[in-house]
Amino acid sequence: ETGVTQTPRHLVMGMTNKKSLKCEQHLGHNAMYWYKQSAKKPLELMFVYSLEERVENNSVPSRFSPECPNSSHLFLHLHTLQPEDSALYLCASSPRGTSAYTTSYNEQFFGPGTRLTVL
Amino acid sequence: TQLLEQSPQFLSIQEGENLTVYCNSSSVFSSLQWYRQEPGEGPVLLVTVVTGGEVKKLKRLTFQFGDARKDSSLHITAAQTGDTGLYLCAGVTSGTYKYIFGTGTRLKVLA
Q1: Which contiguous run of DSSP H or E holds residue A116?
Q2: Fewer Cβ atoms within 10 Å of its own Cβ: the N or the C terminal residue of chain A?
Q3: How far is A39 from chain B, CA to nearest CA, in Å?
């Protein structure tokens, strides 16, 4: 496997279910990200992990819970979601982290996404 | 709130035509990336521009970073159906180190 992989590619869940999205990067990068992409909205950054530490959480509801056990894996645990949470969830990685102490540019490499539908 | 506005929002053209997509902000960016996203896939990085006034070419695609590093453009020459997709600009604002994405331009090239 190369690049950034995400599983599952499609997920349908009820509002009372608990599920997890998985992301794996094979690029040796130091930072990983979760984004939400909805129709008619710009990509929304949800969480950032740099060297396995969460460095950013953009006011995401607690029904989304990220986990980064090591620099290659990132999970997004989902529970009691709402229909408005239906979207494409994208994972990305970048060579550098995003703290104020890192260099300026930050190219990101994306996985194919998980299309989530909440019924 | 920093914002990256892209225009046009939607564009439908015939194969062989030329087009330009714009990415504008009131903030200064230390660097800027362009991505293309095809349906059902994640965005794929096309280019990074760093220096004000910089021009980069990728086959039929020409990218320019504004002199003041607040705007960028993407010009496609002789568009092909394979150019169809969502084009996104993104960058890190100077000072805040926040990485933000533009509003996107959805391009459809018709055969």
Answers
A1: strand A114-118
A2: N
A3: 11
Question: Would you say residue A97 has pLDDT above 80?
Answer: no
Calpha distance B80→B106 (Å, rounded): 14
A31-67 confidence digits (pLDDT tens):
899 999 998 788 888 998 887 777 777 789 999 999 9
Chain A residues in contact with B92 (beta carbon < 8 A): 104-106
Q: How far apart are CA B104 and CA B86, in angstroms?
A: 6
Q: Is B39 exposed, middle or buried (0-12, 13-18, 19+ CB in 10 A)?
A: exposed
Contact by Cβ (8 Å): A33, A108: yes
- CB–CB of A107 and B88 under 8 A? no
- For B40, other C-beta atoms within 10 Å of its C-beta total 11
Please determine, for residue B80, whether its predicted confidence score (pLDDT) is greater than 50.
yes
Alpha carbon of A107: minimum distance to chain B alpha carbons (Å): 7
- Any idea what the Cα angle at residue B86 is, between residues B40 and B61, rounded to 5°? 125
- Give B41 to chain A, closest Cα distance, Å: 4
Which of A42, A46, A119, A118 is CA-nearest to residue A87? Answer: A118
B40 touches chain A (CB under 8 A): yes
Look-up of token digits 């996404």: A113
Residue of B nearest to A103 (CA): B97
The CA distance from B84 to B61, in Å, is 13
